[in-house]
Structures
1.
Amino acid sequence: ELQQKLEETELLKMELQMLETERVRLSLVEEKLMDVLQLLQQLRDLNISKRALGKILLSTLESCRDPQPGKACLFEVLDTLYHELTACELLQSQLLEKAQSHQSLSNPLVISC
């Protein structure tokens, strides 16, 4: 009976470890999904065309067509989509404009008219 309890305990420990691993994986997926949704929101605010957004999505799906061994397919797609969105020219130009305006505002010697 003691042996059976030890085996059950080991089984429960392994199950707990698997659940913890799954929790961490889901947490990473959730984080990446939130990043992607934030970028999509920014692009929507910049009035990105549906055609450009469609091209980004198709490019993402094309690059994830053959999943890499050992990588979770869902996370791979989200990660690729995130990188495709960050490389979007519209978003890059907005970030550049913000950086330039912040730089001009932070310089106390600049007088704006």
2.
Amino acid sequence: MSAPFEERSGVVPCGTPWGRWYQTLEEVFIEVRVPPGTRAKDVRCSLGSRHIALAVRGQELLQGKLFDSTVTDEGTWTLEDRQLIRIVLMKTNRDAGNCWTSLLENEYAADPWVQDQMQRKLTLERFQRENPGFDFSGAEISGNYSKGGPDFSSLEK
């Protein structure tokens, strides 16, 4: 039996002025660096299905319309080591072809190389879920993997 796909293995982060974001088939992770010693009561975080707002000590760090929709009541944020806020958003569309090209509609876009690597990772994740008996840990993907790669679901097993 293969191990579940590890979202941090082969993470393809998109750097931003405040930290970074990355994604899996199901989730979008946002890591925001904050001043050391930040306390939870200093943080104001609002997570909607298509909107995010984050402020620390009254200073807005991140706000805008998300690239795609998320499941509102499954979004969470945590403060780690009093210096990093990690936000986890659950994608509404969990298809391998739903590779977010940016975090917000017009901000924090992945450059073309990073976008390509993100799509490769999501396609490998999809293949692993479709084929749980195979080990994809050392796999590389090439060819047509955009939009989630080829669809093999109609092939006879």
3.
Amino acid sequence: MSTGDYKVADISLADYGRKEIEIAEIEMPGLMNCVEENKDRQPLAGARVSGSLHMTIQTAVLIETLKKIGGDIRWCSCNIFSTQDHAAAAIARDESAAVFAWKGETLEEYWECTLSAVTWPEDDGKGHGPDIIVDDGGDMTLLIHEGKKAEDAFLKDGTLPDPTSTDNEEFKIVLTIIKRLLEAGETDKWNKIAA
């Protein structure tokens, strides 16, 4: 596993990923036109963008489009099996985005990657979260909404999420992460992101 402000299977796959991205750019003229029309205007300048989409070569082209028009990007996959490791490696190595994705993640790793993709290391005055999300399956959105709901309950009367309250294995993981953050003193992370 290769790590930095990213977590990918094998950073040495980046050259292969870069070649595939260059081919995909030719096949994706709409995004290339978006870059051309907006590179000077920079409509995403200063915007933090979190994404949860299949981390494929085509998604890599989207990530780099968002970056080229000003976005500060953090990304994870929306599926534990869909990551193309060479695509993730190229995006990580070339610093197009902080990417947290590899093929074959466990469910726990998947949700930790989702948390990493919505958490910047520095507070921009609005917290450590994104301004915009690109969310394919709704998992990133779910984490934000459940986090806000849990923070509101905790601030009201000290209630913590109870992972044993559900039989759904993934939702147990979500509640465990949110509970861990609340117990560590993060009581306004999700409210800031929601705002």
4.
Amino acid sequence: CQVIVHDVNELTEKLFPIVEAMQKHFSAGSGTYYSDSIFFLSVAMHRIMPKEITRIIQVDLDLKYKTNIRDLFDEFDDFPEGAVIGIAREMQPVYRHTFWQYRRENPQTKVGEPPPDGLPGFNSGVLLLNLEAMRQSKLYNQLLEPTMVQKLTEKYHFKGHLGDQDFFTIVGMEHPELFHVLDCTWNRQLCTWWRDHGYSDVFDQYFHCEGEVKIYHGNCNTPIPED
């Protein structure tokens, strides 16, 4: 087993010029903070990792594994043609909230609606990055261009604060074919913040997840069940 440690400052230096434009749309702070670039690492991982690295799983720290993570690698084999990233749906109505203006102007839209038929957005706690496919996808690389990011955020009246997750979500509204959607059991989010902040009536439609949980995600500091 070989472990390679990467210098955060070095990575940020490479990342910043690629993701600078999107930071103002998807960062919590106002403006663009150099250090915030690291929250967009997954978006441009294919540009900064050596070419011989073709696949990466990127995970948050607030996870608990109930199965061998090697099984998650098998999901790469299920990517449909054209897909570059494996990611699970967001399990709270956060994007129902964020897209409120677009939803009001487009009452028939699936944007922000709950599964199985809606587009609830994505959660980036567990990510499968097919770096080779990301490098080869003309569409994906076009979407990283500042003009394209601007175009999408304007179309959807979008201002987010969740970094890479916001980028993947807004791209997924426009180009779902770029994503292989992981089952909720691979990223069973536990945060219930939005249930108590105006969305109790629809919350369970987003939060519901059937099946044996493979990875628990204790997002927003939520305790993870003991074995």
